[in-house]
# Entry
Amino acid sequence: MVSIIRFSDVERFRNTGRWVLVYGRRKVGKSFFVRSSVEYDRYYFVGRGGLIYEEDSVLSYETFKREVAQSLERDEAVVVDEVQRLPGEFFDLLHRLGVRGRLVAVSSTLWLARELIGKHSPVLGLFSDFRMGLIDEVDILLNLRDKIGDKKKLVEYSIFLREPWLVPVWESAGDFFRALPGTVRLTVPSLIGEIFTEEERMYTRVYDGILKAVADGRQVSTEIASQLYSHRLIPAQDPSLVHPYLKILADIGLLEKVKIYGKNKYYYRHASPVIDYYYYLDAKYGVSERDIQEAQALKVLAERIPLYAEQFVARLLSRKMGLWPEKIVEKDYEVDIALTDFQKLVAVVEVKWKENIPRSELRNIEEKLSRFPCKRIVFVPDREDLPREPERVEVWDVESVISTDTQK
# Structure
């Protein structure tokens, strides 16, 4: 069994306070991370019906409250998983108790995190907040590099295995990419339903329409509004009608907002390629309503992977270099990735996700990137695939990025 070590999250967690709120979207591995990486004396799980479990025991709420208070007063470490399911008066109890012992509260909702750190919260200032997303790009590469020799395949598997729930599928499937469409079709709708349930929101046709539109290439609010209006999901072709929905989808971790460099304009994309893949299949082939055809699904996957690789590399380089990932979009050209330090352009990056790059294409990359007086990078799976060494452009590949982290 492959156990994914989240090196960056372990390091971040070392810098938290005595009381920590661990929160994030459903199925990003919060509970596994806490159980495997955090030392604790007591671990409580709160079920949807309000029942509280400790190992094989079921506790009443009153017993649970008493045990938590006593453990913290003895300076023990306590974990409360799915803390958002407890009544509000539990947080009043914590306020009266004050910061004693070690308390790790785990929540699948972002609204609770905002409530706890909001100015009217009874535990304002008592918790450090620790948001968890998908597995860090560098971390997943480091975990898998000894198991997958081909660097192109290493990234392509890593793109999807940032979703921890897919790791067992990858381990057991004879052909992961053939198993992926059916797995995604069954799991993603349930995952989306769980996310909205935990966020106490109804999953409406407008949300569904937005997620499909973004997967289908409508990535700015005007285009999204146009598609929703054409499907009679909003009463007017007005971007202001979709902005509140887009904000919620970004807040709960389903969409991410990317700035277009030099402009007061943003575009949206799915934070998870796995979820994007499902909604793209649904937009094109209606897979939510009928069986998926393997040939179609594999063809779509082959088309989408270069886009997912670009997204993966943007985040990878952003974190490695400590810069913001943006995109350059002009009338006659685009640049895949712009890495910025506030308003300063530090690097421009073109991602070429294929094994054979013609000389003419490499020359076009050189000409396009030469417009920018900053670091210029072409990112490829393996630098050996280039027909020649480019001029005035650095070549980065998978090995050059992960080799700097061999100490982990």
In short: Residues 59 and 163 are 32 Å apart (CA to CA).
